[in-house]
Design a protein that fits this description.
With 132 residues, this protein is mainly alpha-helical. It has helices spanning 3-23, 27-40, 45-57, 61-75, 82-94, 98-105, 114-131. It is globular, with a radius of gyration of 15 Å. The protein starts with a helix and ends with a helix. Residues 110-114 have low confidence and may be disordered.
């Protein structure tokens, strides 16, 4: 087994464990596992889709819908996803998931306008400052 296969198996295992947590109603454990996995694997659209299901179960239907749309777009060859990245990022900020929002806004293979990027980071900075 080569390194790529090993990494893919680890990624699949993490998402399977997160899905089991979700199935068992352990939302916090699922959230932590999906969040950690997605932060380490920002291109994993399955993590985005699973996070959408977690958010739906947690009562954040609006965010779940945005993440589900984003997951579908990230799976496509469409590189112009600035609106979906922006909306998903700000919805994540609203529930205090700043690190996930920042990861989305810093994705290097998607086109995000400078204005969206700068205003989003300003909002993240303001929210983090308010928490301190």
């Amino acid at each position: 087994m080569n390194q790529a296969d090993s990494t893919e198996n680890e990624n699949l295992g993490a998402l399977m464990q997160a899905q089991k947590f979700l199935d068992d109603g352990q939302l916090e454990e699922c959230l932590q596992l999906v969040k950690s996995h997605w932060l380490n694997n920002p291109q994993d659209t399955q993590a985005c889709a699973l996070l959408a299901r977690v958010m739906n179960e947690a009562g954040h239907g609006d965010l779940a819908g945005k993440l589900e749309r984003l997951s579908g777009i990230l799976n496509s060859d469409d590189k112009l996803v600035s609106t979906e990245l922006f909306e998903s990022s700000h919805a994540l900020i609203d529930i205090r998931q700043h690190d996930l929002a920042s990861m989305l806004l810093n994705s290097d293979d998607k086109l995000v306008s400078t204005e969206l990027f700068e205003s989003s980071h300003a909002l993240i900075d303001i929210r983090q400052h308010d928490l301190a």
